[in-house]
Amino acid sequence: MSANKWSLETTLKFIQCYKIHECLWNFSSPDYKLKDKRNAAIIAIADEMNINDFGVTDVKNKIKNLRSTYSQELKKIDDSKKSGAGLDNVYVSNIKWLKEMEDIFMNDVKRKTYESIKLESQVLGHQNAEQQQSSLQCAASSAQGNCSQSTVTDANATNNSSTGTSATPSRPKKRPRDIVKAIHDLKRMNDKLNAKEEEETPFDVFGKSVAMQLKKMTIENALRAQQEIQCILTEIGITDYRERSS
């Protein structure tokens, strides 16, 4: 079967397989940065799909295509909203599997936001360090009479204040509002994620139990067991999707 001509049922099966292997898309997963785990997950998906001539490269390409299609459809929806179109004219995608990718895509947005804020924080910290170093160098030079005229002026203002003349104290530079807001949003998002993790359900307990049992097996047996479990979940997942869509 060609990967470009899949039926809805086959596509849904692939998405279900992809979603269960969180190390491929969930950046908060402990296995997300483990190359061996990710490679094993891709191999497992290829085996679970059981399609002739559909291997590791095909799995990677299919994931890339699904994510790209989702992004394009989401952009069309956003563009139609920004154009000022009424509710009746907002773009509605006719791709039936789109909703199944929401969890993955939203996690991708969180990951990009987290990495962006982390980079901004690092840049801000580097700038603050440079400013502190510059201030120390300037202070040392001032003691030797080599500081810049602006520093001399500040020193005179300080001397005047000691003799009774009031001087306006220098204020620390304010952190850019957008960075402060971004850090606040990240903290709030992290608090929500932690709150969800604390609300453990019987399904969470069962999932951990299955994971513990798989870890005690050999890689081959664990992958075989995982494939059997995934097949059952996929079949029920497709049935559940049809029931909710009808």
UniProtKB/TrEMBL annotation:
Database matches in Pfam families: MADF_DNA_bdg
Q: PANTHER family of this UniProt entry?
A: DPT-YFP REPRESSOR BY OVEREXPRESSION, ISOFORM D-RELATED (PTHR21505:SF8), MADF DOMAIN-CONTAINING PROTEIN-RELATED (PTHR21505)
**What residue spans carry the Low complexity bias annotation?**
147-170
Q: What is the lineage of its organism?
A: Eukaryota, Metazoa, Ecdysozoa, Arthropoda, Hexapoda
- Residues spanning the membrane: none
InterPro entries, alphabetically?
MADF-dom
Q: What is this protein called?
A: MADF domain-containing protein
Q: Which SMART domains would you find in this protein's record? A: MADF
Protein species of origin: Henosepilachna vigintioctopunctata
Location of the MADF domain: 13-111
In residue numbers, the region (Disordered) covers 147-178
